[in-house]
Amino acid sequence: VKVSELGEFGLIELLSRILGETKPSGSQLILGIGDDAAAWNENHYITLATTDTMVQGVHFTLENATWRELGWKILAINLSDIAAMGGLPLYGLVSLALPAETEVRSVTQLYEGMVEIARQFSLEIVGGNISEAPSVVLTASVVGRGNAPLLTRSAAIPGEMIAVTGYLGSAAAGLDVLTHQLQLNDKSVSFLREVYLRPRPRLAEGQTLLKWGVRSAIDISDGLFQDLGHLCKMSGVGATVRIDDLPIHPIVRDGFRDSCLDLALSGGEDYELLFTANDESIADIRSEMECPVTVVGEITGDKSGHITLLDKKGKAVVQGHNKGWEHFSKARSDTKAR
Amino acid sequence: VKVSELGEFGLIELLSRILGETKPSGSQLILGIGDDAAAWNENHYITLATTDTMVQGVHFTLENATWRELGWKILAINLSDIAAMGGLPLYGLVSLALPAETEVRSVTQLYEGMVEIARQFSLEIVGGNISEAPSVVLTASVVGRGNAPLLTRSAAIPGEMIAVTGYLGSAAAGLDVLTHQLQLNDKSVSFLREVYLRPRPRLAEGQTLLKWGVRSAIDISDGLFQDLGHLCKMSGVGATVRIDDLPIHPIVRDGFRDSCLDLALSGGEDYELLFTANDESIADIRSEMECPVTVVGEITGDKSGHITLLDKKGKAVVQGHNKGWEHFSKARSDTKAR
After folding, report:
1. A95: nearest Cα among B70, B95, B56, B51
2. Are A117 and A63 in contact (CB under 8 A)?
3. Confidence of residue B44 (pLDDT cuts 50, 70, 90)
4. Residues of B in contact with A132 (CB under 8 A)
């Protein structure tokens, strides 16, 4: 059996079973494989740790992204995991694999992008590793800090509303624009490029969610449909999503009339936060956050983790492509280098 | 300028200057880029963090190594960094990039190798990441714990003896045997393969060093000559090394008569500990450690960090190839896939 047949999430499940056998006595682990970040108890707080990788030709191409943007993004996607736990970042490690013919200037720009985001979000880059490789592979690990209760994927409760920060589908639209050189006006292209290549981790927003009593959240890296699915599965609940309520930016709505719904549902890489809460909390949260906060559906008691998409009239609809991003999935062979 | 011209260590120096600009207020960092692991203060102890990567075709080939051996080794080389600080490991993250056509069974074996070493050294694997990639790239990050004073690269003092644990050059001999299918007897091949692919991190030995008052150590990943050079540079000292005193295993001495000295000086990947101490401490350490402990030279007051190699008669000698392993270095193009 090839990993392409099992898929990324099947593989993670298999491996978490094998790796679950390593718990030493005295372990202070609270959350291991399966949430946005690992979490363990220190004396007076919780340490969070996460890692993420970007591979040339799979996650990016050097034609579509500048080195500086890549430096920003490899840290942004890790910081987003810390945000989704309600934590704040402290220290980062960077592992860089790159061809010997890479220009030193390119690597300098890569690190300048890292320094830029590190400064904005108070991350200190404290170490790393550089190796030769046939193509570019960027890996970062971020250690952060949180306090109990954390935001987790496993705390959603039937009856809660499902809300998201910001807009959905913009990053995937940005990838589409860069990959296919779509003809949009300069302002739109620049907006979409920024969203796709320089996502802003929702760290302050994660803090606001905690403040207003939110317990369950996930960052949307693989698309709303898939990430909500992870959250439902971990919480043992189901969900309904009203597709007409999905927050789609006007630029995406105008530029991608036929596909914007698919992009919003399963485009991925938005790095927005999806969370569950009651109406009252959401009103408080909305009044405090600078970004849009949109209710897109509701948590149900369906223990199978099923997500039902509803149209304007409340009728169940089936989307053609609602799987979201999954590594090794054959379905995504048409979207290279996202 | 290409990174191949600047070399791995020139690149690390350049980047540590750029990344040094990220220190936020309230940082508890003790050691950043430049030692075996980063270190920062927690309330009652020091947290250590390190990351290391192995790239297919550069650090290994799937012809020469089993997946299980690779799983062991990617964690072993990270644990070795924790050992070199006098720390003990706690939690590990694993980032795995691999082709879609990889067999699930291979990945299972990879993780079984990780579980094996994790259990032996009380490491808990708590998270990670799996991505598609054109070739295999394995990255692990390990978080550990230490107490002040740590073992560092910057604490060597003129007049101290330089000692190493175990044997030098065996791992490089192992690589040579696997790469060139050298004709040695089965016992020798199996010994050398084991040393090269399943190095044992010197964690207990690091604890023993601390117990007997050692302050300066480094793990030998790039070869004695290069790693001693890093230690000298960070400590602002020089060194003499008596090449006839280098501990070379009889199997390596017999099988590699012409090259064993070069292998011991600059073969790399031994993952032994090099440390500095006075005679008395070394005697105590030797009596307590199960592995050989060999004095190979002396720290000098030469502030340029120069290392002088001495022959049996105390005469300075120049070795042909004493650079050690460096990524992007042109000198090493003859030793692919180590």
Report:
1. B51
2. no
3. confident
4. 55, 58, 327-328
C-alpha A62/C-alpha A2 separation (Å) is 29
Of B22, B50, B141, the CB nearest to A51: B141
Contacts of A1 in chain B (CB under 8 A): 103-105
* Peptide bond just before A149 cis, omega within 30 deg: yes
Enter the ipTM: 0.92
Distance, CA of B217 to CA of B226 (rounded, Å): 13
The whole-angstrom separation of Cα A153 and Cα B196 is 41
Q: Which pLDDT score is estimated for A331? A: 39
CA separation for the pair A33, A18 (Å, rounded): 11
Residue B120 tokens read as: 């032996």
Is residue A108 within 8 Å of residue B18, measured between CB atoms? Answer: yes
Q: Tell me if chain B has a CB within 8 Å of the CB of A49.
A: yes
For residues B167 and B151, give the distance between their C-alpha atoms in angstroms, rounded to a whole number. 21
- The structure tokens listed for A229 are 């699915």
Q: Residue B334: is its pLDDT beyond 50? A: no
Closest by CA position to A119, among listed B34, B39, B29, B19: B19
Q: H/E element holding B11?
A: helix B3-19
What integer pLDDT is reported at residue B45 of this predicted model?
93
**How many CB pairs below 8 A link A and B?**
267
H or E segment to which residue A77 belongs: helix A67-84
Q: How far from the centroid of its chain's Cα atoms is residue A45's Cα?
A: 24
pLDDT for position A277: 98
The residue whose two tokens read 């050059």 is B169
**Residue A223 tokens, joined:** 């698309």
What is the distance in angstroms between the CA of the first residue and the CA of the last residue of chain B? 26
The position carrying tokens 């449909």 is A225
B22 Cβ neighbours under 8 A, 6+ residues apart: A114, A115, A118, A119, A123, A124, A125
Q: Is there a contact between B56 and B99 (Cβ–Cβ < 8 Å)? A: no
Q: How far apart are CA A127 and CA B35, in angstroms?
A: 9
Pairing of strands B88-98, B46-55: unpaired
Q: What is the mean pLDDT of each run of 10 residues along chain A (338 residues)?
A: 89 85 86 93 94 96 97 98 98 96 96 96 94 97 96 98 98 94 90 97 98 98 95 96 97 95 94 98 97 98 92 81 53 39
Chain segment B266-278, per-residue pLDDT in tens:
999 999 999 999 9
Taking the mean position of all CA atoms in its chain, how far away is CA A66? Answer: 21
List Cα–Cα distances, B105 to A19, B86, B100, B109, B172, in angstroms.
15, 36, 13, 6, 29
The angle at the Cα of B225, spanning B221 to B226, to the nearest 5 degrees, equals 55
**Residue B52 to residue A118, Cβ atoms within 8 A:** no
**CA distance, residue B132 to nearest chain A CA (Å):** 6
Strand intervals (E) in chain B: 29-31, 38-41, 46-55, 88-98, 124-132, 137-146, 161-165, 216-220, 238-242, 272-277, 293-300, 307-310, 316-317
Which two tokens mark B286? 């030797």
> Measured between alpha carbons, how far is A92 from B299 in angstroms, rounded to an integer?
34
Task: Quote the CA–CA distance of A25 and A20 in Å, as a whole number.
Answer: 13
Give the residue on B whose Cα is nearest the Cα of A98: B3
